Amino acid sequence: MRKIDTSKAHYVGLDQRIAPRSDVYVRLPFVMPDGRQEMCTCVNISADGMLMRFERGLEIGDLVVFRMPIIGRTAAKVVWSLGGKTGVQFDKSIAVEDYLPMIRAMGARADLN
Fold first, then answer.
1. In the chain, how long is the greatest CA-to-CA distance?
2. pLDDT in tens, 18-63
3. Based on the structure, what is the number of domains in the chain?
């Protein structure tokens, strides 16, 4: 049996995410590790992290800060980046009372009730 290093992102077997994601498609401003401001596209999000598209890519471990609707500044750490897609984990989980209003503001298409 192969041992999996759980300290790193991996995609072996079932989806290993902490929380289910909500599909969205919204442009978000964010601050790069060097202080430059850029724009990315958020593809899906949960209270713990998100998948973003950013063509220039980022390095694993990079710290970025997003300007999110409803909740404002949200810091995150890059956990993987490949082919213009990047997964980040938020420093703090988004509070349940803020999550639904935030994803509605992002244009989430699923039934959120």
1. 46
2. 667 889 999 999 999 999 999 999 999 999 999 999 998 799 999 9
3. 1
For residue 66 the two structure tokens come to: 């997003």
Examine residue 99 and state whether it is found in any structural domain, yes or no: yes
CATH of residue 102: 2.40.10.220
Residue 95: inside a domain: yes
Question: Does residue 84 belong to any structural domain of this protein?
Answer: yes
Please report the pLDDT score of residue 16 as a whole number: 54
Q: Residue 47 burial by CB count (10 A; 0-12/13-18/19+): exposed, middle or buried?
A: buried
Domain region containing 51: 21-106
What pTM was computed for the model?
Answer: 0.78
Would you list the DSSP string of 13-70? SS---SS--EEEEEEEEEE-TTS-EEEEEEEEE-SSEEEEE-TT---TT-EEEEEETT
